[in-house]
Amino acid sequence: MSLFKLPGELPGGSSFFRFLVARAVAIVAYQMVSVAVGWQMYDITRKPLYLGMVGLVQFLPSLLLVLYTGHAADRYDRRKVISVAQSAEAAILLLLFLATWGGWIASEILFVLVFLVGVARAFEFTANQTMTPSIVSQEELPRALAIYGSVQQAAIITGPLLGGLVYAAGPDKVYGAAVILFFTSALLVSRLTIRQAPPAREPASLATIFAGFAYIRSRPVLLGAISLDLFAVLLGGATALLPIFARDILLASPQGLGCLRAAPAVGAFLASLCLARFPMKRRVGEIMFGAVACFGLATIGFALSRSLPLSVGLLAVLGGADMVSVVIRSSLVQLETPDEMRGRVSAVNGLFIGASNQLGEFESGVTAAWFGTVAATVIGGIGTLAVVAIWRQLFPQLAGRDALHGSPAEGPEEGELGGQCS
Questions:
Q1: Which GO terms describe its cellular component (predicted)?
Q2: Alpha-carbon dihedral 237, 114, 34, 316, rounded to 10 degrees
């Protein structure tokens, strides 16, 4: 029995298949652009600091617009939000193509255009997070999210490879290809068939805009799952330090660094294949805490490894454990949230994801400067294990969660939050 069946036999049928194709196309485009922008920025400036600033500029729109991206996803047809956002990304990248092709590109122009892409991407990301439950049934959602994760990881692996190959012909070629890919994705999304009617428009107010934060705050399972991932990745992430490990500790070539960077995505891809074939049905809370603990242990093992193959393997384990946690968290967020709230809740969830990745890289750099690369990574892994132990006590509802399926209409019991988060 094959893991990926014909489109008609997938969760959600052909509509979900088209959505997967659209997402894969958009992710490949974004990854290609990320490679090109990084190389081009360094070619122009020769300053490593500018590379870090690119990541910060990409994250800022998600932070600044978190209240509005979620509200837009809940107030308007999400297919239109995604299509308009991707069309805007394509138009901005067309400007970047012209600037590069015409020879008038500069670091300042790159920063401005990357920021504008980040603005459009913030709206696209939030609306995309809410689309799968609109296409598949609740019973099919965990498997659908696992399949989605497989496609996403495959695109994350493929995108940089294609970006590097096309960049050899010139960065303008990368941007030109991305324009076509984003427009293609926008067209596919605009023609999706969804199970639920577009959300009804409700008047904008401070209460509706902040509703995502309030909803998560009132649900210990959601708050625990989202914050567990935030602090675990914030402390345990070592991505920013991989060049140091490759060059100075493992004595590897640039190709070795490429293997290290690809390993977590490969592990995540394999884990998502397993989850799609064998969906989790029981003891999901224990599995999530176990996966995050495995993430921390793999981080410590990677820090202490002096063998490139072993390090690659440990990073793959790390990526696989992270994917298990991601699928559980994503399923809980979607299943525990009513459709009219999914945009705002997903916006907060997306902000936490971005914060854990970007601030995690900053934290890794600071602690590495203080304690050294190996010690900083070991400390991060130990910190992740400490978070697991503390969160089990703070969020017993999450630790004791048996099945993914729950009733989003049910609120917390009186006094359920106790002193956990007040």
A1: plasma membrane
A2: 20
**Same domain for 179 and 222:** no
Burial (0-12, 13-18, 19+ Cβ within 10 Å), 17: buried
Return the minimum-mean-pLDDT range out of 19-23, 119-123, 307-311, 364-368.
Answer: 364-368
User: Do 185 and 210 sit in the same domain of this protein?
Assistant: no
Burial 331-362 (b: 16+ CB within 10 A, else e): bbbbbbbebebbbbbbbbbbbbbbbbbbbbbe
* CA–CA dist 71, 289 (Å, integer): 31
- Unique residue bearing structure tokens 């998560």: 216
Q: 174, 238, 260: which is closest to 380 by C-alpha? A: 238
Summarised one tens digit per residue, pLDDT across range 154-178 is 888 888 778 877 888 889 999 999 9
State the CATH number of the domain containing residue 271.
1.20.1250.20
**pLDDT tens digits for range 132-143:** 888 888 788 888
Residue 414 lies in a domain: no
> Going by C-beta distance under 8 Å and a sequence separation of 6 or more, which residues neighbour residue 355?
59, 63, 230, 234
**How far is CA 191 from each of CA 111, 187, 316, 411, rounded to the nearest angstrom?**
33, 7, 36, 35
- Is the domain of 140 the same as that of 213? no
Same-domain check for residues 177 and 258: no
In whole angstroms, give the CA distance from residue 259 to residue 185: 29
Structure tokens at 9: 């036999």
Instruction: Say what the pTM is.
Output: 0.73
Region label for 94, one of left (φ > 0), alpha (ψ between -120 and 50) or beta (otherwise): alpha
Q: Is residue 4 part of a domain?
A: no
Contact status, residue 190 vs residue 77, Cβ threshold 8 Å: no
Q: Among candidates 34, 33, 6, which has minimal Cα distance to 20?
A: 6
How far is 399 from 291, CA to CA, in rounded Å? 12
Q: What is the DSSP string of 359-390?
A: HHHHHHHHHHHHH-HHHHHHHHHHHHHHHHHH
Q: Is 199 within the bounds of a domain? A: no
Query: How far apart are alpha carbons 422 and 419 in whole angstroms?
Result: 6
Q: Is residue 5 a part of any domain in this protein?
A: no
CB 131 within 8 A of CB 82: yes
Q: What domain range includes position 287?
A: 206-406
